[in-house]
Amino acid sequence: TQLLEQSPQFLSIQEGENLTVYCNSSSVFSSLQWYRQEPGEGPVLLVTVVTGGEVKKLKRLTFQFGDARKDSSLHITAAQPGDTGLYLCAASMDSSYKLIFGSGTRLLVRP
Amino acid sequence: KAGVTQTPRYLIKTRGQQVTLSCSPISGHRSVSWYQQTPGQGLQFLFEYFSETQRNKGNFPGRFSGRQFSNSRSEMNVSTLELGDSALYLCASSLDRTFSYNEQFFGPGTRLTVL
């Protein structure tokens, strides 16, 4: 059973469209991070959210942490081909330095 | 500031052999974690080292081991390789500020293929 459920698994959209990716769990997290990974490379950290209800913006990307710190969403406005990649959410739980990763959302933005 | 570096980037081994992968963390980062990434299982935590001590361990067999040196550089070793060990092995370092703000920065990974 996946502790962190990401949806959708795959997303293929046209340039200029908006999209939202979800990361859900029944567990409460100390913090949650979003990464983007390109083929053959390691994940690149996009953002960390710590406080329930927190919203962070990174250019066209908006990240939200749920009030109960059990879920998060990533919204991309006016997607561009450069946004193509694997988006991963990862969470820290309890007093552990271990990161638990979601299964990922593979995004393809067509020109 | 230089990022996390991993060597080698690509490795081909045969079943039964052993392999050692190396990771140099970002300067000043004292915590190093290792992950295995496969298409079927995604990213799975292997272990984490801090000040030369293994602080956390994932659910992997004893064939997977690691260590950290006094300069925070880390190595992981896989003995008696199996076909299923083929994966991208990722190393990540963090400042170890607090577990509630565990930002990890990843290297490019080592692609291991077991034939």
Describe this structure in words.
The complex is a heterodimer of chains A (111) and B (115). By secondary structure, chain A is mostly beta strands. Helices cover 0% and strands 53% of the residues of chain A. Chain A has no helices and 11 strands. Chain A has strands at 5-7, 10-14, 19-24, 31-37, 44-49, 55-58, 61-65, 71-76, 85-92, 99-101, 105-110. In chain A, the strands form 2 sheets. In chain A, strands 2, 4, 5, 9, 10 and 11 form a 6-stranded mixed β-sheet that branches. Chain A has a 5-stranded antiparallel β-sheet with strand order 1-3-8-7-6, with no helix packed on it. In chain A, a hairpin with a 2-residue loop joins strand 6 and strand 7. The relative contact order of chain A is 0.34. In chain B, strands 2, 4, 5, 6, 9, 10 and 11 form a 7-stranded mixed β-sheet that branches. Chain B has a 4-stranded antiparallel β-sheet with strand order 1-3-8-7, with no helix packed on it. Chain B is mainly beta. The A-B interface holds A 30-31, 33, 35, 40-45, 48, 50, 88, 90, 92, 95-104 and B 4, 31, 33, 35, 42-45, 48, 50, 55-56, 58, 90, 92, 94, 96, 99-109, 111.
Q: Report the major sheet of chain A.
A: 6 strands, mixed
Distance between the termini of chain B: 37 Å
Sheet with the most strands of chain B?
A: 7 strands, mixed
Q: What gyration radius of chain B follows from the Cα positions, in whole Å?
A: 13 Å
What helical percentage do the residues of chain B reach?
under 10%
- How many strands appear in the DSSP assignment of chain A? 11
Residue windows where pLDDT falls under 50 for at least 5 positions of chain B: none
Level of helix content of chain A? Answer: under 10%
Question: Which structural class is indicated by helix and strand composition of chain B?
Answer: mainly beta
What sequence of helices (H) and strands (E) makes up the elements of chain A? EEEEEEEEEEE
Shape field of chain A: globular
Gap from first CA to last CA of chain A: 36 Å
Shape of chain B: globular
Low-confidence stretches of chain A: none
Oligomer: heterodimer
Q: What class would the helix/strand composition of chain A place it in? A: mainly beta
Chain-averaged pLDDT of chain B: 92
* Global mean pLDDT of chain A: 92
